[in-house]
């Protein structure tokens, strides 16, 4: 691999930028990639459509979806050559495609297919590196580290949603065309029952064939550049390229210095053997005049005028007036500012200003768009009201589901003893420090969830419980002493459980003394 021929900047990038680089790389090689993709994708779709049984026609697109990773390898092959400046034709890519299927296809088409959405990051391990077995496993583990596989997986999910939207849009468009004039139904073809022999049975396959044929190369290209980015991080491609450039520059300077020295010696020796120049070579009076610049004159009207003109001509041809020089220099061009048409309107404003005589589209769309925008903003604010720091009240659901355990600790009231502080101190004095802190923490969470009706949902962590308590304290639903005490208990429990840093005896005794009035007395 010749890194000096790399056509992209090899610096390590964030994963989002690496994915975006794949889209730019695909645009550079779009013709070859899409022609090769469709040369394999379209015949495969026809074969699946012809060989599918009648009872399976509405689901035969699943077979095409299952075999799609094999088609993605052609895109990886083309871009892997193009990124190093090598031009691959469609015929060359099609001829090389069978060789690309030798390794990794069993894993890709079996247990990996339904769950590994980030497979595009690992495909180059088989296609380009030729790794197999334990070596391939180790390479996949290294390449997928530091969030690279997560980025590839989420990008695969996003691409799947785009494909679904395109597929649904195609079926809805056809449904509008086949609906009756009185009842426009875009979901007509989705609601119709599939009967054997009808052409509508192949619509899901056609929809997926088109949507995956458009989105699939983007997924493969972006995962390939994410793979390149991980290799650049691991192998230091940018450092290696910079060192090679410095080496070439140093070698060029050395060669240039030696060439200058040799040239100087040759010029000095050549000057010693040159003959002396003739004296005529220094005579500049015989240089040709660029041209006669005298203006054309009318004929003289008298002998005095002719004599005056002869005197002027003899003076102008003298040596005092024969000096001339030619100067060549660069001058900047005068840029003419482009005229901006301020009267030009955007297509959206033109659309809203258009008033059809029978269908007032603008009057209908304007309030509809404004209403939808306001509704969307209100919904987003209400949906993320927790992030607003209590500016909006939290919704209270009378039938809310309360968690039965937090971080593996049972917080049900029936699982707690009657006297919490005494039980905690007894466990602490017996040397059961972890059990003592766990009892104090889960009792505090239980009282907040059941007595104070704080939102403690299943799956909450210690941090989520603390954030819920702070929000309730800001809204006045929880007293300040209770909120401060719960924060101290949470920090003590986290430090002991995760960092093995235990509180002092006096600190624990202080927490137990403050617990009944702040939390225990509210039960």
From TrEMBL:
Q: Does the keyword Protein biosynthesis apply?
A: no
What keywords does the record list, in alphabetical order?
Membrane, Transmembrane, Transmembrane helix
Coiled-coil region list? none
- Domain (Protein-glutamine gamma-glutamyltransferase-like C-terminal) spans 440-512
Q: Which Pfam families match?
A: DUF4129 (PF13559)
> Could you say which residues form the signal peptide?
none
Name this protein carries in UniProt? DUF4129 domain-containing protein
Species name? Chitinilyticum piscinae
The taxonomy runs: Bacteria, Pseudomonadati, Pseudomonadota, Betaproteobacteria, Neisseriales
């Amino acid at each position: 691999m010749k890194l000096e021929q790399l056509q992209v900047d090899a610096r390590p990038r964030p994963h989002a930028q690496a994915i975006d680089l794949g889209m730019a790389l695909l645009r550079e090689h779009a013709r070859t990639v899409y022609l090769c993709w469709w040369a394999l994708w379209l015949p495969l779709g026809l074969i699946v459509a012809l060989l599918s049984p009648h009872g399976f026609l509405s689901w035969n697109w699943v077979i095409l979806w299952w075999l799609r990773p094999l088609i993605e390898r052609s895109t990886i092959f083309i871009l892997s050559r193009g990124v190093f400046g090598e031009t691959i034709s469609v015929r060359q890519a099609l001829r090389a495609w069978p060789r690309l299927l030798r390794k990794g296809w069993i894993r890709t088409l079996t247990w990996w297919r339904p769950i590994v959405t980030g497979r595009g990051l690992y495909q180059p391990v088989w296609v380009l590196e030729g790794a197999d077995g334990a070596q391939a496993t180790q390479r996949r583990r290294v390449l997928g580290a530091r969030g690279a596989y997560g980025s590839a997986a989420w990008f695969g999910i996003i691409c799947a949603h785009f494909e679904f939207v395109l597929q649904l849009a195609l079926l809805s468009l056809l449904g509008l065309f086949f609906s009756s004039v009185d009842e426009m139904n875009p979901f007509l073809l989705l609601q119709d029952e599939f009967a054997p022999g009808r052409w509508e049975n192949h619509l899901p396959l056609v929809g997926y064939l088109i949507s995956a044929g458009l989105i699939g190369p983007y997924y493969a290209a972006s995962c390939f550049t994410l793979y390149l980015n991980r290799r650049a991080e691991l192998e230091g491609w940018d450092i290696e390229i910079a060192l090679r450039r410095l080496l070439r520059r140093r070698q060029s300077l050395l060669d240039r210095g030696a060439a200058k020295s040799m040239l100087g010696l040759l010029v000095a020796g050549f000057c010693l053997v040159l003959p002396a120049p003739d004296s005529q070579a220094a005579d500049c009076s015989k240089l040709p005049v660029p041209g006669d610049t005298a203006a054309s004159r009318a004929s003289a009207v008298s002998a005095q005028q002719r004599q005056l003109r002869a005197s002027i001509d003899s003076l102008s041809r003298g040596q005092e007036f024969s000096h001339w020089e030619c100067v060549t220099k660069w001058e900047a061009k005068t840029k003419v500012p482009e005229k901006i048409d301020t009267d030009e309107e955007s297509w959206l404003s033109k659309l809203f200003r258009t008033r059809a005589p029978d269908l007032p589209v603008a009057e209908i769309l304007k309030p509809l768009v404004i209403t939808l925008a306001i509704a969307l903003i209100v919904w987003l604010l209400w949906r993320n009201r927790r992030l607003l720091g209590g500016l909006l009240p939290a919704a209270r659901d009378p039938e809310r589901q309360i968690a039965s355990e937090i971080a593996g600790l049972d917080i049900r009231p029936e699982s707690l003893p009657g006297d919490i502080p005494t039980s905690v101190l007894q466990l602490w004095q017996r040397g059961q420090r972890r059990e003592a802190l766990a009892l104090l923490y889960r009792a505090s969470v239980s009282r907040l969830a059941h007595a104070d009706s704080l939102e403690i949902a299943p799956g909450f962590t210690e941090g989520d419980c603390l954030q819920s308590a702070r929000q309730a304290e800001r809204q006045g639903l929880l007293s300040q002493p209770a909120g401060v005490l719960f924060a101290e208990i949470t920090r003590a429990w986290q430090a002991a459980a995760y960092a093995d840093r235990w509180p002092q005896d006096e600190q624990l005794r202080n927490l137990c003394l403050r617990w009944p009035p702040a939390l225990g007395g509210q039960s």
